């Protein structure tokens, strides 16, 4: 156990140094990423200190209760900081006060409960007593409630970002946010397991510790990859487009589209499709409305009246229909050529989307057409 604690301490320290010293070169000038970086660095630093205390004081040898108390006092603010860092990314730095105070109040509640338990028992915090064990169960439940509440809020934020991306880019952007979804799930898994596993021993405890360790490492590693890639810029661009579309709608005081307006926008869209505007690879919603010469909110409102509702699913449908026509007319063309002609970014992406939409590969579709 001592070797594992020492290894975890070293790795957490390395991650802290990476976030606070090495990563700034990649995120200089981006206030939002910098704030999330410091939040994560604070979390990894707390965990490094926690593992150091466990190693030096040999708390597991003193008793389970002492180790659990230190784990709770350090891991709750660590989990809070990691969660805040994701909130910061989701909301472009605009974090509600309730989100901030949820974690602070939970940690203060845990401290008070532990102190009260020590006062009632009349013994030190480092003495294993029934009162202290009950207090730690209560603390673990409080941590669980905190993280579950955060999980629902983070899930809503992910849904909003996913919708913003799908309503702006012409390709599947799921990979940009998948790490956030997995991280939220892992943090929730750790929190839900806390009331049941904090007093466990042996392999069960070791397995739970591995989950915690993997969760923190995965979250930090994915965040670093997110920072050094262009994903953060793309997400910010899509969210800004969604915010501007909403502002345009509010300024126009139009909240529902009339049938006459829907037909007018439909004619403009049909004309754009006739001119092959939907086959331009890499086109965004902003570029599409510029070519159509209509406000963004009008195209967004019109899309909501269709079965696809969002820009990317609608555009993908149009491109797949064009791909079907091209495959029928030119069965000898390669998938690379079809993808290029129909606006798909690559052959592999075209094949993936075609299979998803038709339950057939392009080659199978060609064979079906010949029958």
Short key terms for the protein model shown above:
single chain; 371 residues; mainly alpha; 17 helices; 80% helix
**First-last Cα distance:** 67 Å
**Class of secondary structure makeup:** mainly alpha
Tell the overall outline.
elongated
Indicate the proportion of strand residues. Answer: under 5%
Please summarize the sheet with the most strands.
none
Number of strands: 0
Contiguous runs where pLDDT drops below 50 for at least 5 residues: none
> Topology as H/E string?
HHHHHHHHHHHHHHHHH
From the alpha-carbon coordinates, what is the Rg to the nearest angstrom? 26 Å
Can you give the mean pLDDT?
90
* Helix residue percentage: over 70%
- Note the total helix count: 17
Write the layout of secondary structure elements.
Blueprint: H1 2-22, H2 24-27, H3 31-57, H4 59-62, H5 64-90, H6 97-121, H7 130-166, H8 174-197, H9 202-228, H10 231-252, H11 259-274, H12 285-292, H13 296-304, H14 311-329, H15 335-341, H16 347-358, H17 362-370
